[in-house]
């Protein structure tokens, strides 16, 4: 059978996922790399994995991206 | 001693971008410059807090003065936090990016507390009819899908610890924000995430073992 996509995404866990604390420690650095297109995912694969899986941290990431872009543009 | 510390700070600031160094100089040296810098920082963070609350407003029912009050609280608490840990800023990003991160986190905290104070449904209500909706599954379509939903509920009951089950019910069935559960259970975001991370692995393994999900888990290919 085809796995329902929403359920499949929810249940999928990535062993590289660093968790909330470590992701939040470097979020400001990560965001600047993302904004400058400096291969953030390559440098911080565990943070990338976490932000894709954790709703609240993902929201913080999107919010910080918006703040940085909004104030630098 | 203070001068030596200041010199040391100034030396470290040489490696930072000029704007960040200027923020640190003004905030660290006291007097009128410091007061003006704090005022400007508050204005900047208030603007970010308002934008962030509006950005998240598709899910919120907070409007008008209440929304603005949350923005002021978030900006004020962020300025206090930044003021208390200036020494923790290591210059790995621009100062403003670091400061924005702190106010964005404050917005998350404030929203979590808001939902904790105004819950739409009890955190521990168990409306299992919501399970298919939570994952955009239409159980009316196929017996196979109905079986999957039943198996998932069974796995939640049989495979999860009491704490994992309680969090699953709150987060998935009742849609309680994770930051609200942080307040309810006097814990932190990481602890809840880790508990749910383990729960998700258990549920997936149970559904795959029962033949309800395809075993296309990328985890095993990565490990």
Summarize the structure in short:
Chain A is mainly alpha-helical and 73 residues long.
3D structure, described in words:
The complex is a heterodimer of chains A (73) and B (223). Chain A is mainly α and 73 residues long. Chain A is built from 6 helices and no strands. Helix content of chain A is 74%, strand content 0%. Chain A is globular and about 45 Å long. Chain A starts with a helix and ends with a helix. Chain B has 2 domains: 116 residues, Rna Polymerase Sigma Factor, Chain: A (Orthogonal Bundle), CATH 1.10.1740; 95 residues, Arc Repressor Mutant, subunit A. Helices cover 71% and strands 0% of the residues of chain B. Chain B has 11 helices and no strands. In chain B, α2 crosses α3 and α4 crosses α5. The interface between A and B is large, with 40 and 52 residues.
Compile the SSE list and pairings.
The complex is a heterodimer of chains A (73) and B (223).
Chain A: H1 5-11, H2 19-25, H3 27-35, H4 40-43, H5 45-53, H6 55-72
Chain B: H1 2-13, H2 18-28, H3 31-55, H4 64-84, H5 95-117, H6 131-134, H7 143-159, H8 162-173, H9 178-184, H10 189-209, H11 218-222
Rg result of chain A = 14 Å
Number of helices of chain B: 11
Q: Helical element count of chain A? A: 6
Strand content of chain B: under 5%
CATH class of the largest domain in chain B: Mainly Alpha
Domain module count of chain A: 1
Q: What is the CA–CA distance across the termini of chain B?
A: 52 Å
Q: Encode the helix/strand succession of chain A as letters.
A: HHHHHH
Helicity range of chain A: over 70%
Unreliable stretches of chain B: 1-12, 219-223
Overall pLDDT of chain A, averaged?
A: 92
| Largest interface (C-beta under 8 Å) | A-B, 40 and 52 residues
Total domain count of chain B: 2
Low confidence ranges of chain A: none
Average pLDDT reading of chain B: 87
How many E strands of chain B? Answer: 0
Q: Give the termini separation of chain A.
A: 47 Å
Oligomer: heterodimer
């Amino acid at each position: 059978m085809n796995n329902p996509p929403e359920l499949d995404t929810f249940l999928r866990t990535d062993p590289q996922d660093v968790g909330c604390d470590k992701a939040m420690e470097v979020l400001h650095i990560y965001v600047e790399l993302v904004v400058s297109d400096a291969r953030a995912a390559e440098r911080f694969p565990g943070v990338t994995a976490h932000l894709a899986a954790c709703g609240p941290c993902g929201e913080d990431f999107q919010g910080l991206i918006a703040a940085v872009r909004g104030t630098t543009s | 001693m203070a001068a030596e510390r200041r010199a040391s700070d100034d030396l470290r600031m040489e490696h930072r971008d000029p704007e960040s160094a200027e923020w640190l100089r003004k905030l660290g040296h006291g007097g009128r410059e410091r007061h003006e810098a704090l005022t400007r920082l508050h204005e900047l963070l208030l603007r970010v807090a308002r934008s962030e609350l509006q950005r998240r407003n598709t899910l919120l029912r907070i409007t008008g003065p209440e929304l603005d009050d949350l923005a002021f609280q978030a900006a004020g608490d962020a300025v206090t936090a930044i003021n208390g840990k200036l020494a923790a800023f290591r210059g790995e990003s621009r100062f403003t990016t670091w400061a924005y991160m702190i106010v964005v986190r404050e917005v998350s905290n404030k929203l979590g507390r808001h939902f904790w104070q105004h819950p739409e449904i009890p955190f521990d209500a168990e409306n299992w009819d919501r399970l298919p909706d939570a994952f955009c599954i239409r159980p009316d379509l196929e017996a196979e899908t109905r079986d999957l939903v039943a198996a998932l509920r069974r796995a939640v009951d049989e495979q999860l610890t009491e704490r994992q089950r309680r969090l699953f019910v709150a987060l998935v069935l009742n849609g309680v924000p994770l930051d609200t559960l942080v307040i309810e259970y006097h814990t932190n975001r990481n602890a809840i995430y880790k508990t749910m991370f383990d729960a998700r692995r258990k549920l997936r393994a149970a559904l795959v073992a029962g033949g309800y999900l395809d075993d296309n888990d990328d985890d095993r290919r990565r490990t």
